[in-house]
Amino acid sequence: MKFSEQLEARYADMLTHYPVKRSVLVPFLLYIQDEFGYVTDESIDELARRLEITALEIRNVISYYSMLRVKPAGKYNVQVCTNICCLLRGGEQMLDHARKTLGVAVNKGVTTDGVFSVEEVECIGACSWAPAMQVNYEFHENLTPEKIDRILDEYRQKAAQ
Amino acid sequence: MAYLVSHPDEVKVVTKRFGQGAANLDRYLELDGYKAVQRALELGPDGIINEMKASNLRGRGGAGFPTGMKWSFVPKESAKPKYVLCNGDESEPGTCKDRLIFEHDPHAVIEGAMIAAIAVGSHDAYIYIRGEYRYLLEIMQKAIADAYARGFCGKNIFGSGYDLNVYWHGGAGAYEVGEESALMESLEGKRGVPRIRPPFPAVVGLWGGPTVINNAETLASVPHIMLMGGKQYAEIGVERNGGTRLFSLSGHLAKPGVYELPLGYSLRKAIYEVGGGIADGRTLKAVVPGGSSVPCLKPDEIDVALDFDSMMKAGTMLGSGGIVVINDQTCIVKFALRTIQFYRHESCGWCIPCREGTDWLSKSLKRFHAGAGVAKDIDDMRYLAENMLGRTFCPLGDAAAMPIIGFVKKFREEFEAHLDGRPCPYEQHGVAADLAVLR
Fold first, then answer.
1. Segment B197-244, tens digit of pLDDT
2. Are the Cβ atoms of A122 and B167 closer than 8 angstroms?
3. Which of B89, B107, B231, B428 has a CB 3.0–4.6 Å from the CB of B178, allowing a cystine?
4. SS (HEC) of chain B
5. Residue pLDDT, tens place only, B41-53
6. ipTM > 0.95?
7. Over the stretch B358-414, which tens digit does the pLDDT of each residue have?
8. What percent of chain A lies above the pLDDT cut of 70?
């Protein structure tokens, strides 16, 4: 299989970083996920061929890292932190608000239009600006239910375009 | 984007260039950028290490190991290449300081890593940034590319004849990878399962070569030490604890934020003056003073200096500098439960005391908080946690056990208040029970 031109360029550049090929694995899997929405079976096999390791070894690595997934998420994956600092400032209520608003279970499934999924995540490094969430890679901090509504509306509009 | 705050008691060393556009290389050069690495090249390895030892800089990741001494452990001669690895996997709950450094002063981290490399005779430095910090990885990628474009990295840096490469590397979500041996495994393209030590990374590290691993804040402090001199840097702090630290203030504070304070600053003042005191007119119940892994302190225990030794004497740790403030409306059992659920989620399962211990504690606390606890559980939880200590390859087992021991020891009455099927005295929202969560 072929990756996009951009992803191929990324791969070629990353190979120059390390004395062994395998070191590209963790960050490159995330770039693969960005391109396909998740780490696909085909890309695992392709990477196994290139890195000269087994597909099983790659799956073993994938299962360790919480950001990597082998199934699609929503176009916008809403990741709400409920760890201690967010907990103290209402993180659980924010998660609850997000799931109720979007009508999708936490860590399970995608909205019927495929736009959103909701995930409960561990500390994302926004402790001083809690409660916080990330939508894909974008940080949203000092959340309130109203702020979440506005943020989700913006992503909904972006998805419709 | 993370917000910047300020307080008159701050001593701005690492944060000096924050908010000044220093991610731009030209601006960084106007602000004394890349002068420190040239000074380091003049000093040479022994000169650099002497300055570092004089600075009393101790590792900002959490363990507080003296940086100069760490660098001196790397053998001068090595058949295998030596490496420098910057730990930017910042994941300790309560800690959000490295984020600001990468955002506002990425070149300081590059320069610090370069100086570390010169000190130990390494020609390759890696800057590892956690996967969630994608925008910071992009800032770093650009900063590294810009530094190469000017010839600051690569062959014959600053006409010294010394070759030095700097590379970026991204994670994909794993707290445990912040532990140094797991970090190396991750960079080698594996699961972040820790390695047994000895041998220590300074002798056998990345791809078997001697490796220095430092936290991003530690490395960002290094250029300033080179420019002001180790002795002057040491004088900012207190005995054996040189310089400043970025404290992440969070929780029920009126003015949470990341503040740079000299080591030895009072914890009470950090809470009540710098952090603006407890928000909404509430009172203090507890503070977790060094990230989620450390034992909490009660309100009568906060007259303590924020340095590694004083905190140790107070029965806790300075840790990552994440100060989590808890008000009187908070259920400590619930807080302990959320803490252990985190470690349960992050345990790699390699060492049985950690894998089983975090799971059992998590189940016990969940049941206990729901009102199905019995009196014996309280001592059992403490006993279980105490038996996790020191029995694992990496400190994740300790990090999970220590806060739980602290909560049980210091807030026994709150645990007892949950006995006999009584509902949690603090539960107002009732959302916790019906949350559909992974755990």
1. 999 999 999 999 999 999 999 999 999 999 999 999 999 999 999 999
2. no
3. B89
4. CCCCCCCCCCCCCCCCCCCCCCCCHHHHHHCCCCHHHHHHHHHHHHHHHHHHHHHCCECCCCCCCEHHHHHHCCCCCCCCCCEEEEEECCCCCCCCCHHHHHHHCHHHHHHHHHHHHHHHCCCEEEEEECCCCHHHHHHHHHHHHHHHHCCCCECCHHHCCCCEEEEEEECCCCCHHHCHHHHHHHHCCCCCCCCCCCCCCCCCCHHHCCEEEEEHHHHHHHHHHHHHCHHHHHHHCECCECCEEEEEEEECECCCEEEEEECCEEHHHHHHHHCCCEHHHCCEEEEEECECCCCCECHHHCCCEECHHHHHHCCCCCCCCEEEEEECCCCHHHHHHHHHHHHHHHCCCCCHHHHHHHHHHHHHHHHHHHHHCCHHHHHHHHHHHHCCCCCCCCCHHHHHHHHHHHHHHHCHHHHHCCCCCCCCCCCCCCCCCCCCCCC
5. 999 999 999 999 9
6. yes
7. 999 999 999 999 988 999 999 999 999 999 999 999 999 999 999 999 999 999 999
8. 100
Same domain membership, residue A152 and residue A86: yes
Q: Are residues B213 and B262 in the same domain?
A: no
Tell me how close the Cα of A125 comes to any Cα of chain B, in angstroms: 5
Instruction: Find the CB nearest B172 among A51, A65, A123.
Output: A65
Q: Residue A107: list chain B partners with CB under 8 A.
A: 436-438
| Residue B131 in contact with partner chain A when CB distance is under 8 A | yes
- Minimum CA–CA partner of B329 in chain A: A88
Domain range spanning residue B110? 25-236
Domain count across chain A: 2
Q: With an 8 Å Cβ cutoff, is B194 touching chain A?
A: no
pTM over 0.90: yes
Total domains in the fold of chain B? 3
Residue range of the domain that includes A48: 5-62
Question: Do B73 and B218 reside in the same domain of the chain?
Answer: yes
Identify the CATH number of the domain in which residue B157 sits: 3.40.50.11540
Question: Do B61 and B185 belong to one domain?
Answer: yes
